[in-house]
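Sharing a chain and its predicted structure for anyone who wants a worked example. Both blocks are below, sequence first, tokens second.
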Amino acid sequence: MHKTATVILAAGSSTRLGLPKQLLAYNGKTLLQHAIDEAAKAGADPIVVVLGFKAEEISETIKRNNVELFINAGWEQGMASGISGGVGKALQLDEKLEQLIITVCDQPFVTASLFNELKKVQRETQQHIVACAYADTIGTPVLFTKKYFSHLQALTGEEGAKKIVKTNMDDVAAVEFSPGEIDIDTVDDYDGLVQTE
């Protein structure tokens, strides 16, 4: 069994929402805490949380002593620096890491069983990227084996991990995750989510 790190991207400023989405409450915990807890339940080691906007305020709300933080000073330049830094931090913590999962904090229906399914499909297919499929696209959470660690660390500007997925489709397996299309970008999104509690 390969040890799997999880990198949780939580550095953005939630401009369309008007307040930090990382701290929105759902089912008794913040969206960020939910992502951390599900990663932990799936046995993630290490768990790296990438923070940027309001990093100090958000870090104070995190309840787990085995979470490592990567504070991305360049968060305003785009997602790439957070991915690159988060992956670098995970490798610094465990240089023998074989695979990692990149996830975000605003997909409220991400679960430990989904993370475990990504790992299972990777073992079964031997593909080096396993992404979630929803709403006619593929995206996070997404598992990468070490074959792509250097690609992730080389991302720049606004580029996200999806660029690597799309340019290596022959090396991608997909896991159906229809609730993945629900993410929280606006007040209306959040209001809709709260009504499902």
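Comments welcome. The mean pLDDT is 90.
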